[in-house]
Amino acid sequence: MSSPQQFPPREATVQEALQWISEGRCSSHDLVSRYLDFLETEGKELGAIVETFEAEALAAAKLSDKRREQGELLGPLDGIPFTAKMNITTAVGTTDASSAMLVGFEAGEDATVVRRLLGGGAVLVGKTSCDEFAMGATNETSCHGVVANPWDRSRVPGGSSGGAAALAGSHGWAFHLGSDTGGSIRLPAAFCSATGLKPTWGRVSRSGLIAFGSSLDQIGPIARDASDCALVLDCIEGADPLDSTSLHQLDESRDPIEKVALVSEGFGSGIDDSIREAVRAAAQEMEQHGVEVTEVSLPQLHAANACYQVIATAEASSNLARYDGIHVGSRVAADDLQLLYEKSRRAGFGVEVRRRILLGTFVLSAGYRDSYYSRAQAVRDLIREGVDHALEQVDALLLPVSPFAPFPIGERIDDPIALYACDILTVTANLAGVPALALPCGFDEAGLPIGMQLMGARGSDHRLLQFGQQWQQWTAHHRELPVGGAS
Amino acid sequence: MSWQTVVGLEIHAQMATRSKMFCSCRRETGLDPNHNICPVCTGWPGALPVINEAAVRCAIRAAICLDCTIQRESRFDRKNYFYPDLPKGYQISQFYRPYALGGAISFEREDATADRLPLVRIHMEEDAGKSIHASDGTSRIDLNRCSSPLLEIVTEPLGMSGIEAASCVRSLRHLLRWVGVSDGDMEKGNLRCDVNVSVRPDASAELGTRTELKNLNSFVSIQRSVEVESKRQIEVLEKGGTIRQETRLWDQDLEVTEEMRSKEDSPDYRYFPEPDLPVIVIEQQDIDRERQSLPELPAERYRELVDDLGLDPKEALPILARRENCEFFAALLEAGLSATSASNWFRGEVLRHLNDRSERIDQYPLAAEAIAVVVKAVEEDRISVGKGREILQQALDEQRDPNEILSESGEQISDESALVGWITTVLSENPEAVNKIKSGDSKPMGFLMGQVMKASSGQAHPRLAQDLLQKMIEQD
Q1: Do A14-236 and A259-453 show the same overall fold?
Q2: Options A33, A98, A161, A184, the catalytic residue
Q3: Which residue of A has its CA nearest to B23?
Q4: For position A4, what pLDDT does the model report?
């Protein structure tokens, strides 16, 4: 009976792992147990995982195995391990958004996405680190410490869903819930060679997501490949009575993507040569497979980052007002109310979060509102129109995720402008509310991952994912694992 | 020099919905502090507001009966400020695009002429919690009221007196209660009023600088604060001073207004569109549906009562005070009473009972049909008016059916020989009273009549007994 325990290869996708389980080559319990080992060792070394739920996860995996035996699976993800970002509420463990302000905060309830996944039998194994309140592009602002890039541990994994992407980039079998306000799923996915989707705004319920910029925030999957992301999206998408901005009618179209346009502005100065080349090469690859590739200019893109900084910080300044030391969040005692607010917020929030709150407060203030917030809203309309117009001509827009490769930890953290530059190519999808899929498309000379993104029309999430699956059948970039990561 | 006082009102009315504005907590008062709260109304991280559609329907009804123009598209905004009873750090309100514009409150001038106070707008918003500051310097926070649904009704400025300002709010409250939009209880805080006051040399001059008086919670304080504040402003101006735009507090014990904060110190609320809520779309059919569900408005009922049923306007007003009163009155008519007797008995008995018992008509235990049976017994001369009243009172006191009491207490006796018997006894027992009456003092007449009724155990037919008594004394 006792044969040496076998596991799927480390890079195996969720679907491949499911294949192993369904063929009886390993159980969900085995898989989850082994994955927990990975989290406890490498996951913690990377700084990617903050909490694991071993007892709960193993018990859930056992139940899943029992269901499988009885042919009563709850859904296609039954028995598969997953993690949630620290800004997504879970009934077990804590949800602190990686902020000292909320350390130890027990939400007591599962976010809608988590509830749906658990209802589908998926196994919650832990919570991943992220930038504080999801504000950052490097995962250096987490109160749980810096997360390392598995491809070069001296470099950043990208942010803010850095923990999730670092795990997905270095190990398969599982999927991860991230959130994306200005690129927080796609940037770390690109930096860590993982696949990540920022869904159409409203496609996935935000109920249970600790808000940053509500009109931009979306929860989405980070996984090994596009078909895993599609499985996850199938489970988490759809109207939610707890989020009245969730879409009641989803675009169910699965028409193949036949026309793709390169966005010129994504290939201009300021973008690394190796990245431009890798994404152009990807476009050629697509062409060879019969995709019609053209090029469009989206001049609005130049204004996107400024526009994003104004809107995201404005909403953040309001969303984070509730952490006032009175109700939720850590309190520093003081003799009067004003001091209590000031001391609690100064102690609880990190530098970057304070910077954004101040910026957001400023752009909404009387006398400045018209020059900043109102103008940004007008620019946002133009960006939306520009993107919509471009997507009337083609099925998807193609551009790099990041202008540069993963950079050394500490390089940009004290230079907010350099930090915000990470977002220049990703924020457009959030401002326009359209879906964007980040896919690995190669490596630079230093062996660091390069990611590209496809933006589609609102609602075309599954078309993008389907195209991503196709792309990943043509290429093998997404199969790569960091050296030393082989099991 | 004669001055004109100009008043603008901002009225907050809590809507009478079952649940709160953005969550499913019940809209209730009187519960233990912080026992009627949920993640949404307390701003728990990750919780999102969801618009209570019943509140929007309620708001539509208010806008219809105030003649507002309802906007097809409106939107919620965030009003940002820090205060411990505001757990999210912002209040969800409608600032840029309120759901209703224009309209007016009909009210009565001091000279009894009708006038209209034009509205700027009505918007929906959520209430904050309550801070309770104890005398020992500690403060407590009760979040039960958080996210209760409010309407804020903002009027244009109009020349009027303090009495007239109070009359506007009274009229508004009447209407909101009538259509079930708000309970309108000022003492419970579900109707609150801010008053903007300015004065100008005469009615044709430009508007003067206004001051705002916050959170007036009675009609008297509305009236008096306007009177006191306009007098203060006139005094300042007449001494050559100027009025600063500021927010002032009304001290109802001292009857003075005190500076609270100047315009420069007023908070910057940093309004912006609430990204967690979709645009509210109100279609014509939504408005039509609410219009159909509205009860007849007081003006229409007034016409019915006065023009069709011939009641005196003075009689009609107490019936119109609440829609439920009108419905009870209608039920009396339905039960076969004439307008006059329904009006008499309703005003004379039912309203007096309610007053005695501090109840509202919807808490009144007697059914209109039961009252009508008693009234008919009176009108058919089977019992006396006094007996009728007595039966109703007894029914209330003993929580019984008036019909039952009616059937127990024998019918009125008109038989002359029986009446003569009682009167004879009474006259012989009270010779002094009889003598007084004979000498021209008619006062003891009532006393004797009372004795006759007593002797008959209340069954003597009062009018016949009265006539007979008179005749027998004269013949004595």
Answers
A1: yes
A2: A184
A3: A242
A4: 60
CA distance A138 to A188: 8
Which residues of chain B does A111 touch, with a Cβ-Cβ cutoff of 8 Å? 46
| Residue among A243, A310, A318, A370 with most chain B CBs within 10 A, to mutate | A318
Helix (H/G/I), strand (E/B), else coil: A333:
coil
User: What's residue A487's pLDDT?
Assistant: 38
Lowest-confidence pick of A261-270, A374-383, A449-458, B312-321: B312-321
Minimal Cα–Cα distance from B52 to chain A, Å? 11
The answer to whether residue A460 is catalytic is: no
Which residues make beta-bridge pairs with A176?
A83, A222
**pLDDT of A25 over the 60 cut:** yes
Question: What does the domain layout of chain A look like in residue ranges?
Answer: 14-236, 259-453
Question: Most B CBs within 10 Å: which of A201, A212, A247, A364, as the mutation test of the B interface?
Answer: A364
Q: Do A318 and B272 touch (CB under 8 A)?
A: yes
How many Cα atoms sit within 13 Å of A418 on the Cβ side? 10
Res A297: pLDDT: 96
Tell me the ipTM for this assembly.
0.95
CA distance B57 to chain A (A): 17
- The reported pTM is 0.89
Verify whether the Cβ–Cβ distance B275 to A215 is below 8 Å: yes
Q: Which residues of B touch A (CB under 8 A)?
A: 39, 42-51, 78, 80, 82, 84, 87-90, 141, 268, 270-272, 275-278
Q: A85 vs A137, A169, A175, A184, B463, CA distance in Å?
A: 15, 15, 11, 11, 90
B390: Cβ–Cβ under 8 A, 6 or more apart, which residues? Answer: B458
Low-confidence ranges of chain B (pLDDT < 50): none
| In chain B, where the domains are located | 3-286, 295-409, 416-475
The predicted structure's pLDDT at residue B70: 98
Residue A1: per-residue pLDDT: 42
Instruction: Name which of A244, A324, A328 is nearest B45 (Cβ-Cβ).
Output: A328
**Chain A residues lying within 8 Å of B90, measured CB to CB:** 318, 321
Known active-site residue A170: no
Residue B57: CA count within 13 A, CB half-sphere: 17
Q: Distances in Å between the alpha carbon of A403 and those of A98, A264, A421, A425, B272?
A: 26, 13, 8, 7, 32
3-state helix, strand, coil in chain B (%, to 5): 40, 20, 40
The CATH number given to A259-453 is 3.90.1300.10
A341:B50 CB<8 A: no
Q: What's the confidence (pLDDT) of residue A486? A: 40
Which residues of chain B are within 8 Å of residue A363 when distances are taken between CB atoms? none
Helix ranges (H only) for B66-179 are 162-178
pLDDT confidence of residue B293: 92
Architecture in CATH of A14-236: Alpha-Beta Complex (3.90)
Q: What is the CATH number of domain B416-475?
A: 1.10.10.410
pLDDT mean over A279-301? 97
Each residue of B246-291: pLDDT tens digit?
999 999 889 999 988 887 778 899 999 999 999 999 999 999 999 9
Q: Is the pLDDT of residue A378 over 60?
A: yes
Q: B84 contacts in A (CB within 8 Å)?
A: 324, 326, 337
